Amino acid sequence: xxLNTHTALPHILGLIEASANLAQIYQDITIGLAxxxxxxxxxxxxxxxxxxxxxxxxxxAGMSLQEINPxxxxxxxxxxxxxxxxxxxxxxxxxxxxxSSTAETLVVSCFLTSCYPLMDKAxxxxxxxxxxxxxxALKLRNTAQDELLKLEELLSDLSAAFINIPVSExxxxxxxxxxxxxxxxxxxxxxxxxxxxxxxxxRRTHSYALPGIKQPPLIVDExxxxxxxxxxxxxxxxxxxxxxxxxxxxxxxxxxxxxxxIKSFLFIxxxxxxxxxxxxxxxxCRVKRTWPDLLIQRLRLIWEIFGNALERKRADQTIQKAxxxxxxxxxxxxxxxxxxxxxIDFEYKHEEIIGQSPAIRKVxxxxxxxxxxxxxxxxxxxxxxxxxxxxxxxxxxxGRKTRAMIxxxxxxxxASLIEAELFGREKGAYTGATSTQIGRFEAANGSTxxxxxxxxxxxxxxSKLLRVLQDSQFERLGSTKPIKxxxxxxxxxxxxxxxxxxxxxxxxxxxxxxxxxxxxxxxLRERRxxxxxxxxxxxxxxxxxxxxxxxxxxxxxxxxxxxYHWPGNIRELRNVVERGMIxxxxxxxxxxxPDHAAVIPSVAMSFEDMERMHxxxxxxxxxxxxxxxxxxxxxxxxKPSTLESKMKKLGIKRKPPIHEI
Length: 661
Prior knowledge:
Beta-Lactamase, single chain, 42% helix, 18 strands, 661 residues
């Protein structure tokens, strides 16, 4: 398109200015419009063009492109000169212009430009007209869409790469995956951290950093305590500008400075089975960046791919360890060829149940009544009361006592492994299953199987256990061939299974199958008269172990032991006696009860009040920390879930922290 005129260039502008409507349109259109003379100097611009160049409308007249905005001159001057010299229009030319730049940010705008020559009647070029449209937002949307599609493709590639991946390649594949993510998304570093099983500290297990970017330390929990606590709660934590963090993050800010000057970061924890076992972090050291929700969602999916691979690796390591233990036990048991025989008296090394109280006599009478039958027994009681000891007593008094009792703690293994442990597996049943493995039901054929913490058994396995109870048969994992067994089942739990059934966490039909003959083991506080005998037996046992000869116990110490309400039951008593034996140097045993121990007061007080008072005192001493090392659950010798259940039942509310994070 050529703009032919029969007037001189100034006259065109005069006509525009003479018409109020035309002048208003000329100024208000959203496209930048500029008129140039033959020397490529501004004759006139509208408001939008002035906004693009960053100068007022009046400042443009008679000025060159270079004088108004050097960056725009670099993009437009050549185009305009070509139009003026050739008399030919150049339409819809896309250019990128750096509008501003700092050490941390670079703003680049994209323009679509069309240039037309302005001619008089004789065909002489008087100047040029430029129409400039800012298409930065459109380009940004298109670029974002393209990047999202590429990110989805990357996500798909990573997902496919981790399908059926050999365990030996998991770490290498994760490192390669981190490298691809860092390079694709423009991060400087990406790291996987995991909480150590040994000490609970946050340790670096996998990391990739661009050349010149410093790798993080192997352990960071002490350097970044607030971040660690946030991660343990399973919360995503993103920061676009480290300098904007509050004063409580002073350690974290110092860490960012030491780690190459981190400007922005993102933490994504991974929750497996209700527990946070690690996190994936991203760091940007060169520029600040934002963390859109859509990006975080995709990065969470990537983390789940990595996390599942790490869980498979953990499971395989557990299986390999179990296989090694099986082989050792097979050699030890020689011809019996039993699978994972439990060590007798693993927790309590006494050869018989100690106690003469009415409560324990009643339990022993029930044990004698049911032992000679093959009936299913459900042993109920709090943690540490000796439920496993009762199960062994039933087995040892039964006609199956010549074979070892097989035990499985349903809470000690992840759900993915319990099925293989119970029913066995065939070679190739899943990745890492390199050999056939018999399960514990098969090993217990002709004997007794003791399923501890039966309330923790996943719902999907409860139906399979029900089938064994009903039909006495099952199939190994990866096989359709039924295996017939003759097994007596004894189970134990500290949960209220009737309530679990009511709340849908335990199958009702399985509950009735297990509850044929329930035995309730009393807590130690209901058999206080047995404490002296238990203490003497423990002194004899530890005396042989430690090479010490304890001949007396002060009466005030024994009175304190009998007065304490023992929330951890016999297990807690055993720990107290063992600690006393270690600390005692003479022939007298001196024991210290747990801090703030609640003894029976002279004024009548309900058991619930005593239990509530003791739990609150222990929580106060731990800063209301329930879980983890030195937490209240460990101090009370209880499982964290058991303590939380007691707190809920007794109406104990967590005190708010001093500083809210």
